[in-house]
Specification:
817 residues, 36 helices, 8 strands
């Protein structure tokens, strides 16, 4: 959303005039016909992406006040809203020299290298200056650069020309229905058992590559257990699997893990990444989302119950509109709509219209990326530059979410909507209390408190506090509800002060066509949206979720840009396999557990990590899956595994560990950063996720930003992670408990303890080299000078604790096998 803000009061062209002397000579022909004189490389997707995500927003925010599309020829004859205009320049000549930022007047101006610095009130951030310079350096690519970008449809017609997309737009792979292709025949008999394997093996054969052999049983059990439930297998589970020589032994392990309640906690966490779950608002006021945990528990329960994914979508977008005669089920459906409520909100916004539209924008962007893998955020201001998505498409969806009640009010101290649970009476009482809280809060915050007597202010405060206490005691959920059904006008360049034609509530025409049923004023359209997303002829929804599941199992998606299936995203590495999985998923009743089976019971999943130099030369990124990719545990799995192997993991399910009152500001008094919030030994999925104040364990190992949806966690490798595993209190305590457990084996020899330790921590037996090296480690550790004043028992315990800490910090423990 690129909204204009008034940061410039002095015309930029003045700076350009004063800096003209320092610009290197450019030919006269370049000034008259700039495009003809410029020789730069053709723009690519990365260049366009840089422009759309970093450069265009910067120009709109800082330059359009004087040099944008609303100022005619621009002050001094300079316009900055098209590449042609920038190259032609104003009275001082071209504003940029493509491929040469050092002599570009625009870059000199923003670097404050001239007599007058622009913007005048503050210098741009260095990253913004660097983005502009990088853009100029690569030739200043600008999609549709021959004319200024259109702000959207013009005239009175509410349906834009973009509704009639050309054949090239419609032919893009992601907008075609998934086609069910028969798996190819392959010569390898061991790879012909499952359709997935046949697709993978055919691609390997075509490239002249051979797959890695199957991993051993110990490796497979550790891999699939960490993958499905997020903690290592126990020694008993390992021994039972090693002794089971039946042909379906691994399949029965998969079924056992899918039936475990721990499965929903592990895979529910994946979904919480995607829906930007958090227990606080973040943004300007980091207020506690005291009831967000109910949505988290709903997600975990839905995964455990194998809720059909199409139904899962319906519930999250429109659960309050789905009928149920059972009170508990009605509550569950209401809680599900927390999907639309738990996003971050700018609560101190003093423009109520902008605040509402910003919340709608966040809901649109999240919904489209979560379910369709389409980026719609930029379409608030202009037609999408790469994908066939128009501003009318955006505002057709905006009408749906604007017709939904997310907030009680829109003002500086606005509060989100909640629904009482348990009975109709509770729902009514919560609604009553919300009105009481809103009335007294508004009087104290926005009223004329100076004209109030002390008794009047005291009465408002007392009644407000009493209402808040009762409100906190009632069971309720962050949830949306139906508002007043209304269509939304297009807002030119996303500015709510410049209204265009009204667009009927509808879905993107590239997917839904132009002949769509009207959505009545008696409803928002959320239920219609949910049903449309899950129709069999929707090309994206099934593809997006099966690709995410593949990514979580194999480390990379078949489409590597898991949140972007548009033209800036990558094309599938195995398109026929992606379509086979999508069509099979729908045919299986949208069952995620059955989808797991299709992926896990394959030779592809069960491959070893063996290295092959020839294969690495042919396919260095392992896109053809010739071996098992290396994957590090996520921070939640590292923490849970540390607690599990040390015998300290608390498996209590559900509920909240964040003890706060509704609307409590977690920034006051540093509450959000108090370590006692995370002292529990329960699974990490139940720890508070606070925006702007993440738990340090989560931060250390690339937990995603909960302010935005993320279906593809990054993995960094930095020195602080190794230091964390050697020094953090969590690792220290786990190592101490594990060492005590090993030493408690009173009748065992050290070699027996080594074997027990290896099976507990690494999921394998200790080999002779392990026993030799670990014994040397203990001997040398006990002899260090700093321990010589300790007793023999203390030295031995310290040495064992050091050994346990070293194994817990090892790659063999931290990485999936």
């Amino acid at each position: 959303m690129y909204l204009r803000q008034k940061h410039i009061s002095i015309c930029l062209v003045c700076v350009l005039a004063q800096l003209a002397a320092v610009r290197l000579a450019c030919s006269a022909a370049a000034a008259d016909e700039p495009d003809a004189a410029i020789k730069v490389a053709p723009p690519d997707g990365a260049g366009f992406k840089l422009f759309e995500t970093q450069v265009r927003p910067l120009l709109v925010e800082h330059c359009y006040e004087c040099h944008g599309p609303d100022v005619g020829d621009g002050e001094g004859g300079l316009r900055l809203d098209s590449r042609h205009a920038i190259l032609h320049g104003g009275k001082s000549g071209p504003a940029i020299v493509p491929a040469d930022p050092a002599t570009s007047l625009l870059i000199l101006a923003v670097k404050h290298d001239g007599a007058v610095a622009m913007p005048p009130k503050r210098k741009l951030a260095q990253r913004e200056i660097d983005s502009l310079a990088d853009w100029v350096r690569i030739g200043a690519p600008w999609p549709g650069d021959e004319t200024p970008a259109s702000p959207g449809p013009t005239g009175t017609d509410a349906q834009p020309a973009g509704d009639t997309w050309d054949e090239q737009a419609r032919s893009f792979w992601a907008f075609q229905l998934p086609r069910r292709t028969e798996p190819p025949a392959v010569a390898a008999s061991t790879w012909s058992g499952t359709p997935v394997d046949r697709f993978i093996r055919a691609s390997l054969d075509a490239a002249g590559l051979a797959p890695a052999p199957r991993a051993d049983k110990r490796t497979l059990l550790r891999r699939v257990t960490l993958d499905l439930i997020g903690i290592p297998p126990t020694r008993e589970e390992l021994n039972a699997f090693l002794q089971d020589n039946s042909s379906d032994a691994f399949a029965r392990v998969v079924d056992r893990l899918l039936a475990s309640p721990l499965y929903g906690e592990r895979w529910g966490r994946h979904w919480l990444d995607v829906v930007r779950y958090a227990d606080s608002n973040g943004m300007d006021d980091n207020l506690a989302y005291s009831d967000a945990w109910r949505y988290r528990d709903y997600v975990i329960a839905a995964f455990n119950a194998d809720r059909p994914f199409d139904r899962f979508i319906h519930e999250q977008l429109a659960g309050d509109l789905l009928a149920s005669d059972e009170p508990a089920r009605r509550d569950e459906l209401t809680i599900a709509t927390g999907f639309l409520s738990i996003g971050p909100k700018m609560l101190a916004e003093d423009d109520p219209q902008k605040q509402q539209l910003d919340i709608v924008d966040e809901q649109i962007d999240t919904t489209c990326r979560v379910f369709m893998g389409l980026t719609m955020g930029c379409v608030r201001c202009h037609d999408h530059k790469f994908d066939p998505l128009s501003m009318a498409d955006y505002y057709g969806l905006a009408g749906i979410f604007k017709s939904t009640r997310t907030m009680l009010s829109y003002r500086v101290d606005s509060k989100w909507n909640a629904t009482g649970l348990g009975s109709p009476e509770a729902a009514f009482r919560v609604a009553d209390l919300e009105q009481i809280i809103d009335r007294h809060d508004n009087a104290l915050v926005n009223g004329n408190t100076g004209a109030m007597t002390a008794d009047e202010r005291g009465a408002h405060t007392k009644l407000l506090e009493a209402a808040r206490q009762e409100y906190a005691s009632l069971p309720k959920a962050m949830a949306v509800a139906e508002g007043t059904g209304e269509d939304q006008a297009i807002l030119l360049r996303g500015n709510h002060l410049t209204r265009g034609p009204v667009v009927s509530r509808r879905f993107p025409t590239i997917l839904a066509g132009t002949e769509q049923p009207a959505i009545g004023r008696d409803r928002s359209g959320r239920l219609e949206l949910a049903h449309w997303l899950t129709t069999p002829d929707h090309p994206l929804t099934a593809r997006v979720i099966v690709n995410r599941v593949w990514r979580w199992h194999f480390g990379r998606g078949l489409v590597r840009t898991v949140d972007n299936f548009g033209r800036l995203g990558e094309v599938p590495s195995h398109p026929e396999l992606l379509d086979w999985l999508a069509t099979t998923f729908m045919a299986d009743g949208w069952s995620l557990k059955q989808l797991h089976r299709h992926m896990l019971l394959t030779e592809t999943y069960q491959m070893a990590r063996d290295w092959n130099e020839h294969a690495a030369q042919v396919d260095p990124e392992n896109r053809l899956l010739w071996h098992r990719a290396r994957q590090r545990m996520e921070p939640e799995i590292i923490r849970d595994s540390l607690l599990a192997v040390s015998g300290e993991l608390d498996r209590t399910a559900g509920g909240t560990l964040l003890v706060t009152t509704p609307f409590q500001n977690l920034g006051l008094g540093g509450l959000a950063r108090k370590p006692e919030l995370y002292q529990s030994n329960r699974r990490s999925v139940y720890l508070p996720v606070l925006r702007s104040a993440l738990y340090d364990v989560f931060q250390a190992f690339d937990f995603p930003d909960p302010a935005t949806m993320n279906g593809d966690r990054a993995t960094t490798t930095v020195a602080s992670q190794a230091l964390f595993m050697l020094n953090h209190e969590l690792v220290e305590k786990s190592a101490a408990r594990l060492a005590d457990a090993m030493l408690a084996q009173a009748t065992a020899s050290d070699n027996d303890r080594f074997d027990l330790l290896a099976q507990t921590v690494l999921g394998r037996a200790a080999v002779d080299d392990d026993c030799h090296d670990w014994q040397m480690f203990l001997t040398r550790y006990e002899s260090v000078p700093s321990l010589q004043t300790a007793t023999a028992e203390q030295r031995r315990r310290a040495a064992w604790q050091g050994l346990c800490r070293a194994l817990l910090a090892s790659n063999e423990f931290v990485y999936l096998p």
